């Protein structure tokens, strides 16, 4: 097969000739398909900033490649996805010939600048009044400004089994110059702390930590004008959790005071069956919060007949021995033996 490449202009319709040769039993057969055509897209393409990107400036210069045959462009821009999708809520900013659009400078759209921590959406509809199918509605693109507060902590918030010698790190807030770290084992102390020492690096080493201990930390960001209080994050060091499941039924588990027993059991609550503790002995083990249900795909709601896992967490609060019994039943069925 031979191929003669050439540059394709946006106004071109491309015709492809394809020949396929088959060798069977020493016989050569050739099948030719001529005049296979494809049309170039009519909608705007290649957004800048890229779709779903992080944009680290309060000024933005939107750009795109025009669709085939476009003469002008309808611009939609705002911070509400539905409004930009539907062209409502004052998101239409007119028809223009240029393939760029600026927002965030004085006397132009959003003269006070774009807002850190906010996601913006935009859409370009391509227009050619001589074409009956015009305008061609474009895709909705987005970009996000990072927040002024610290974000993306490492370890992640509520992380478990973290190494005792962990180095804490985070992504600095928008134009942050200095960072003040507060660290300890009491949520309220960390949430209310003030007067810490600022530092330049977006990392912090709290020193060797205790096993099986939950710690809390907060990072306040200073941008040379204002200080922005951060969220309180937490993590728990190694040794705090002991995990068991149905295969451990009947076995003996030893816990130290303060350790957490995590029990994971297969379940299908859509059928009405749930796991429940048969006897409550909170003088030794104290259940922590409500039972959690984890579907096979955490991003999808549970489907009827599709199982998952129920997760119990119990904290050892005092010394002693006990039998932890969990039953799988429908709570409204009195006098009926549990299924498990």
UniProtKB/TrEMBL annotation:
Start and end residues of each Proteinase inhibitor I42 chagasin domain: 255-338
Which SUPFAM superfamilies does the annotation name? ICP-like
Q: Which residues form a coiled coil?
A: none
Which GO-annotated molecular functions does the record name? cysteine-type endopeptidase inhibitor activity
Cited Gene3D superfamilies: 2.60.40.2020, Immunoglobulins
Q: Does the keyword tRNA-binding apply?
A: no
Q: InterPro entries annotated for this entry?
A: Chagasin-like_sf (IPR036331), Cys_protease_inhibitor_I42 (IPR052781), Ig-like_fold (IPR013783), Prot_inh_I42_chagasin (IPR018990)
Q: Keyword annotations for this protein?
A: Protease inhibitor, Thiol protease inhibitor
Q: Which Pfam families match?
A: Inhibitor_I42
State the protein's name.
Proteinase inhibitor I42 chagasin domain-containing protein
Q: Which organism is it from?
A: marine sediment metagenome
